[in-house]
Design a protein that fits this description.
By secondary structure, the protein is α/β, with parallel strands linked by helices. Helix content is 56%, strand content 12%. A hairpin with a 2-residue loop joins strand 8 and strand 9. Helix 3 packs across helix 12 and helix 4 runs antiparallel to helix 6. It is elongated and about 85 Å long.
Length: 609
C-alpha cells in the first residue's frame, strides 16, 4: 500500500502550480458574490498567516492583530484620500504604492514599540497585553476626527497598476491573492532557514534556545513585526477594495476572529491560515443566512456556533484541520539533500593541554530559604572527562544551570576560560565555547532529527538578523544552509543516528533522543561539553558507543563534565569525580578513590558496616 501511495505522490510544486492556475481563471468563471467572498478569504488569510508565524510557530498569543490591519488601512486612506496634506506627504499620497510603503514603515515602528513592552510579559499576561493595545488603537481610530471618527472615512481612490485603476472586485482579486501567495511562499522559505529554525526553537523553551546560541528576544520581536506587517498589507488592500473605512473591522472582536481562523486551520502550519480563513468565512456566511431562518429571529447566533466549534476543535484536533487534510492529499515533498562536499563551518581552536576551562569557586545558590548549592568548588581542565555525581536532589542540575549561565549564583563565581559567567546570558556563555544537554530532554518533536541538530550550529553562521530573515525568505541563503545541514548531518552520523536523520525527533525512543541532544550540543563546536544524564535510557551497546565517542572527543581536546547515575558507565570512563550531597561537595578524586570513600557510600547506601 505504501508503495502505491509513493508512486501516486505528487510533487508540491506541481500541486501549487495547479492551485495558482485555478486562481487565475476563478474571476473569469465565478459569479460576483463568490469572487467577493474569495477576496475576503484572501484578506483574512493574510492576517491569519502572520498569526501562524507568531502564535503557531513562535508560541506568542496575540488578540490585537486587527489593530495592525487598521493601522495599514487608515495610513493609506489618510495619505491617498486627504486633500490638505503638506507637500511631502501629498507626494507620498499621490501613489497608493508609496502609501503602502509608508504604512509598512509606520506599522513596523508601532510593532517594535508595542513589542518591546508586550513581549517582556509571559504566561497569560502576554495575551492580556495584546488585548490592551488592541482596544487602545481601536478607540484611537474612532476618536480621531481627521480619520473620520466612528462615522467613517470615504473617498479612498483605487490602486493603480501601470496607470490603470483596479476598481472592481474581479480585478483586485488577483492583487489580493498575489500578496497572499507571496506571503505563504516567503513564510515557508523563512521557516526552512537558519532564522526559521531559531523561530521554531522558541516553542522548545527559552533555556534550550538560548543555550544553543539563539537570540530569543530578537526572534520573538522578528515574528511580532512580521505578523504586524502581514496585517498591515491586508489593511492596505482592504481600504482600496472597500474605498470606505470605519473602525468596526478593526475591533478586538475581529482580532479574536483572526486568531480563531489560525487555530481552526492549524496554527502551526502555513497553509492552515488559508484553510482556517476559508472555513471561517464560508461557514459564517452560511450560518448568517440559515440560522435566522431556522430560529425565526435575527441575531448573532453564528457566534454561539463558532464558540462551540472552537471547543470541539481544541478537544479533537488541537493541531487544527490542516494536518488530517494534508494526510489525505497525495503530496509528498522530496527528501532533503545533504551536500557532503559543502565547505565545512569554521571551527574554534581547542584550548591548550591542562588549561583550566571551567572553575567554580565557593558557589552558593539560595532559593528563598532553600540552599540548593552550598560553598561548592569544582574545576575542569582541557582534555579531561569529569563526573559530577550524587543522590537525587543533591543539587547537580542546579550546579549545571549555574555553570551554563541559566542561573546566577547567590555568592561565589564561575569562570569559563577565565571569564566570569555570572551576569551573562546562556547565549553569551555558549559563545565562549560551552554547550550542554538537559536532564529532561528538550527537543522540537515535530522537527526532523537533522533540523534539531542544525539548531546547535545556529551561532556558527551569523549573517545578521535582517540579512538572515530576508535571505531566508527569498531563498538566497542556500549555500549557507547547505553548510549548516552538512555539519548537522556529520554530528548525527557521529552519534549513530544516521538511519533516523529525517525522522521527527519526537518519534525516537528516549535513549536516542538523548543521543540527539549530544549531537546538537556537538554541532555548536564547543570546547566544553556539559552532559546531564546522557546515558539514561540507553541500552548496553548504546552506552558503550557513547563512552567510545566521549573518549574520542577527549582525544580531540574536548572537555566533558557529566552528571550520571549509572556508576558502571561513569567509573570506567571519567578521569576525575566530584560527589555532591545536600548541595555540598563531600568527595573528589580518582574514580577508584571515590568508590572507597566512606562519605560517598553513606550518601548512596545509607551507611556500611
Amino acid at each position: 500500500m505504501s508503495a502505491v501511495l509513493a508512486r501516486r505522490a505528487l510533487p508540491p510544486r506541481l500541486v501549487f502550480g495547479v492551485f495558482v492556475a485555478l486562481l487565475a481563471v476563478a474571476p473569469l468563471v465565478l459569479p460576483e458574490f463568490t469572487v467577493t467572498l474569495l477576496n475576503y478569504i484572501g484578506l483574512y488569510a493574510l492576517v491569519a498567516l502572520g498569526l501562524v508565524l507568531l502564535t503557531g510557530v513562535g508560541g506568542l498569543t496575540s488578540f490585537g492583530q486587527a489593530a495592525f490591519v487598521g493601522l495599514g488601512a487608515y495610513t493609506t486612506a489618510l495619505l491617498t484620500a486627504s486633500t490638505t496634506l503638506p507637500g511631502w506627504l501629498a507626494w507620498i499620497g499621490a501613489s497608493a504604492w508609496l502609501a503602502l510603503v509608508a504604512g509598512l514603515l509606520l506599522t513596523a515602528l508601532f510593532a517594535v514599540v508595542l513589542g518591546s513592552m508586550t513581549l517582556k510579559l509571559s504566561g497569560h499576561y502576554l495575551p492580556l497585553g495584546t488585548i490592551a493595545w488592541g482596544i487602545s488603537l481601536y478607540f484611537l481610530f474612532g476618536n480621531m476626527q481627521f480619520l473620520g471618527g466612528f462615522t467613517g472615512l470615504s473617498g479612498i481612490p483605487p490602486i493603480s497598476v501601470l496607470g490603470e485603476p483596479i476598481d472592481t472586485g474581479r480585478e483586485i482579486f488577483y492583487l489580493i491573492w498575489l500578496f497572499l501567495l507571496a506571503g505563504i511562499v516567503t513564510t515557508q522559505n523563512l521557516l526552512d532557514s537558519r532564522e526559521g529554525r531559531a523561530i521554531r526553537a522558541l516553542k522548545g523553551g527559552m533555556v534550550m534556545a538560548e543555550s544553543m546560541g539563539v537570540n530569543t528576544s530578537a526572534a520573538r520581536m522578528t515574528i511580532f513585526v512580521l505578523a504586524a506587517l502581514h496585517a498591515c498589507a491586508s489593511g492596505w488592500l482592504y481600504a482600496h477594495m472597500q474605498r470606505f473605512l470605519n473602525p468596526t473591522p478593526f475591533s478586538l472582536h475581529t482580532g479574536i476572529e483572526y486568531l480563531f481562523m489560525a487555530v481552526v486551520g492549524g496554527a502551526g502550519h502555513v497553509w492552515g491560515a488559508l484553510l482556517g480563513a476559508t472555513v471561517f468565512t464560508v461557514a459564517k456566511q452560511w450560518l448568517q443566512d440559515w440560522l435566522p431562518a431556522i430560529i425565526g429571529q435575527a441575531g448573532n447566533f453564528e457566534v454561539i456556533v463558532f464558540g462551540v466549534v472552537m471547543i470541539i476543535v481544541l478537544q479533537r484536533a488541537r493541531d487544527g484541520l490542516w494536518p488530517p487534510l494534508a494526510r489525505l492529499m497525495p503530496v509528498r515533498a522530496a527528501p532533503r539533500r545533504i551536500d557532503a562536499h559543502a565547505p565545512p563551518l569554521a571551527r574554534r581552536a581547542m584550548p591548550a593541554a591542562d588549561e583550566t576551562l571551567l572553575e567554580a569557586r565557593r558557589i552558593t545558590k539560595r532559593f528563598g530559604g532553600l540552599v540548593a548549592v552550598n560553598d561548592m568548588h569544582l574545576s575542569v581542565r582541557a582534555g579531561e572527562i569529569v563526573a559530577l555525581i550524587g543522590p537525587n536532589g543533591a543539587g547537580k542540575s542546579t550546579m549545571f544551570n549555574l555553570m551554563s549561565g541559566v542561573l546566577d549564583p547567590t555568592s561565589g563565581e564561575v569562570l569559563l576560560r577565565g571569564q566570569p559567567v555570572a551576569g551573562h546570558s546562556a547565549r553569551e556563555v555558549a559563545a565562549l565555547g560551552l554547550s550542554r544537554t538537559f536532564q529532561h530532554v528538550r527537543l522540537m518533536g515535530q522537527m526532523s532529527v537533522l533540523e534539531n541538530v542544525a539548531i546547535g550550529a545556529h551561532r556558527r553562521e551569523n549573517p545578521g538578523l535582517l540579512v538572515g530573515v530576508l535571505s531566508g525568505a527569498w531563498r538566497l541563503d542556500r549555500k549557507q544552509e547547505q553548510r549548516l545541514l552538512a555539519e548537522a548531518a556529520r554530528q548525527v552520523e557521529r552519534v549513530g543516528l544516521a538511519d533516523h536523520m529525517f525522522e521527527p525527533a519526537g518519534s525516537l525512543p528516549l535513549g536516542k533522543q538523548r543521543l540527539l541532544e549530544v549531537a546538537r550540543a556537538l554541532a555548536a563546536d564547543p570546547c566544553l561539553l556539559l552532559l546531564d544524564e546522557p546515558a539514561a535510557g540507553l541500552r548496553y551497546l548504546e552506552k558503550r558507543a557513547l563512552a567510545d565517542l566521549l573518549r574520542k572527543l577527549r582525544g580531540e581536546g574536548l572537555s566533558v563534565l557529566l552528571v550520571e547515575h549509572d556508576m558502571d558507565f561513569v567509573m570506567g570512563l571519567v578521569d576525575r569525580v566530584y560527589v555532591m550531597d545536600f548541595g555540598q561537595k563531600i568527595a573528589e578524586g580518582l574514580p577508584q578513590e571515590v568508590q572507597r570513600d566512606a562519605r560517598v557510600l553513606e550518601a548512596y547506601l545509607g551507611g556500611i558496616e
